[in-house]
Write a structure and sequence with these properties.
The chain has 247 residues and is an alpha/beta fold. It is built from seven helices and seven strands; from the N terminus they run βαββαβαβαβαααβ. It is globular. It binds nicotinamide-adenine-dinucleotide.
Length: 247
């Protein structure tokens, strides 16, 4: 049986680990011709059945080149992002610049590079990575992060409105906490204050209504759906996938 993404060329950023990696693997299994990219080339090792390439999404020229020469793409998953842990008082100018540069500006630049080919062909699906910690939920110690991910939602909805009659869809996804390598780093960073690794872990789990974190594959399934024709009537949405965190 043909996969749901058979014949589709799909771009994925931050495919080296976590949600991006799980999405690249799932979409390749569904028949997509995936270009899996990441800042760190070594993290792309082991990705089978797809094209891999190092890419810093903050490098405008490299991003444009990857999307123009590697395309045309039927779908793209803009996954790259960074989680700063700060509040309005502790956030620095440098963090602000970097956070908006990676989480928002690079996503805009990716859309800007991929959209012309999509519009020319009259088809395409763009999936942007937002978060439940955004305009949807105020999470402690996520001041800059929440601001950037809220911007992703606004940018996604506006971009979708501009292309809604042209066969191109733009959506974003808003996960709750997902068990990924960078989450492990956040646990370690909170350990001293929380009273150890186990307590820091438990604090993250406790805020999840289901009493567990998401696995990257659960988020990848939503990305795969949005990149496929199954979601042909879905555009401009910020889809929450958070185990009930925002209930
Ligand atoms: P992660 O944070 O563990 O890994 C991020 C990946 O991005 C790494 O492979 C890294 O090399 C790559 N990367 C970093 N900077 C890059 C750049 N400039 N260009 C290209 N690649 C770069 O993965 P994750 O936790 O799955 O997070 C991925 C995305 O999901 C992020 O946008 C994050 O904000 C979002 N998100 C994560 C969670 C969570 O709980 N893990 C929840 C909601 C949203």
């Amino acid at each position: 049986m043909a996969g749901r993404l058979q014949g589709k060329r799909v771009f994925v950023s931050a495919a080296g680990q976590g949600i991006g990696r799980a999405a690249a693997i799932m979409m390749a299994k569904e028949g997509a011709d995936v270009l899996a990219t990441d800042l760190h080339a070594d993290k792309l090792r082991g990705l089978e059945g797809m094209e891999i390439a190092p890419l810093d999404v903050m490098d405008d020229a490299a991003l444009k080149d990857a999307l123009e020469r590697g395309g045309p793409f039927d779908a793209m998953f803009n996954c790259a992002g960074f989680v700063h842990q700060n509040d309005a008082l502790s956030c620095t100018d440098a963090e602000w610049e970097f956070g908006f540069g990676l989480n928002v500006r690079a996503m805009w630049k990716a859309m800007q590079a991929a959209l012309p080919a999509m519009l020319e062909r009259g088809r395409g699906s763009i999936v942007n990575m937002s978060s439940a910690a955004s305009s949807i939920k105020g999470a402690p110690n996520r001041f800059l992060y929440g601001a950037t991910k809220a911007a992703v939602i606004g940018m996604t909805r506006a971009a979708a409105a501009d292309v809604v009659t042209k066969g191109v869809r733009v959506n974003c996804i808003c996960p709750g906490t997902v068990e990924t390598p960078s989450w492990e780093e956040r646990v370690a960073a909170n350990a001293a204050q929380a009273g150890g690794m186990a307590a820091a872990r438990a604090a993250f789990v406790a805020r999840q209504a289901m009493g567990r974190l998401a696995q990257p594959e659960e988020i990848a399934a939503l990305v795969t759906y949005l990149c496929s024709e199954e979601s042909a009537f879905v555009t401009g949405q910020a889809i929450v996938i958070d185990g009930g965190w925002t209930l």
